[in-house]
Amino acid sequence: MSDISDSETTTKNRGNSVAKAGGIMMASLFLSRVLGLLRDTVLASRFGLQIDADSFKLASTIPDMIFMLIAGGGLSSAFIPVFSEFIYTDREKDAWKVFSVVVTLCSIVAAALIAFAWIFAPQIAAFMSAGHQKYMPDGSLFVDHVAYLGRIMLPAQFAFLVGSILLGTLYARKQFAAPGLAPNVYNVGIIVGALVGSGISIGIAGMAWGALIGACVGNILLPTIFMIGKGGWFRPSLDFRAPGVKKFFLLLLPVILGFSLPSVCQLITQKFGSHYSTGINTVLNSGNNLMMAPLGIFGHSLALAAFPALAQFYANKRMDLYRAEVSKTLRTTIYLSVPASAIMLALAPQIVNLIYGYGKAAHEMQLGDLTLCLQVYSLGIWAWCMQPVLMRGFFSIHQTARPVIIGTVMTALFIGLCFGVEQSSIGFLGLPAVTNLAAIALVISLFIALEKQVGTLDKAGIISTLIKSALGSAVMAGTGYGIFHFVPQHISKIGLFFTFGFVFCVIGWIYFFVTRALKMPETDYLDRAFKRMGSRFKR
Q: Average pLDDT over the chain, rounded to whole?
């Protein structure tokens, strides 16, 4: 009996630890998404949603290609399980040795790729903006301006790539507060750059300079300070025989050779979007950013919070706890993401008006296109939010080949669908539509593949959560739509902001009570939180 009690206590403590980490990551990523939307608001108000904004969006794809080629998104995912294994088996010296080798090699490769992209920036810009044979307001060629902005932002990729390893050491040690600052500092840099640039002669280039400075401070300077404070150290090394180095590259190799859908989806969409009229690149990017808000707040935060625990369960050979944690995290992700999808579908016009309806963009026709784009994107939010949880499930058991192969197949499918949209008369809205199809296919494939590796997950509970969340979301979104039906169309932005606050409070409670009436276990945590808050007020 004692052993069972100890096991239950350990499981509960670990669950509480994941919940706490999830709360920290959700708060930091929520702030990051808010700042990201504020960044887009500043861009729209200062430069509009037309050719200036298009040049910045397409210029961002030049450094993004570096991130993709060096598998930037997979660096930390391949590094954390190896680093965690050493940390949690009392081999800290080996952990910092493998860290030193990985950082040294990544620095060399990143510098070489950045130099290559700098030289060929005009050619890359021409490929990405093939549909834009136009001129900027100052008379310069659009493609030349894209290359110029891309070159400014290229060195930021060094900060992102090396920084992902620095942040990985903190994630592995379950230090979540410090990594939460990185994306926020980056977004603040872009916002300040936009405000300064629009007031002086450099114009939208200010956003590029802000991105560079924000990336260096947020992803290199701050993580280094926190890492050293936790006892970390670095010695330049290319000792590939150091323990763990071979395992890291075996985990990373499939990511480098593959082109997983989540990492290249936006880049591919921008490429095909350039064949449509001026402003469509910005519309697609802005719609995607709105869709990404719940993905970052719910999907990535919960996946990152669960990742160290999953890696630890695997290292300790507790696959029962592993399966329970994956299933619980997926159910929680669905419970939070489905209502977000419903809100964006029902209230897209009001959301777009509140975030983008300022300054130069206030009366542009692109706002109507953006509303439609957001409504299409919203249909796939729940699938995008599940994807990072499933990917971390594979990475935590030291498997990267399988999910990347699946992701690469889905990427090929997505590209084929994009070509089909381009050749049809569907228009640019076909691009977010096929993005949703590819995301849903990816999640189903990942789930089936993960079950084959770790055993049966709670399919019944996950499907039940999806159905009941959809029912609760329909009631919630319908109520929100009905309330806004009585709100004047020409209400001020301040009035619209406070109306949103009121509506979100009302429909949030509606969703909670409906899902609790449906006996969803995900409401238990909120029940306990409300009871704790009530007991404190009584005191």
A: 82
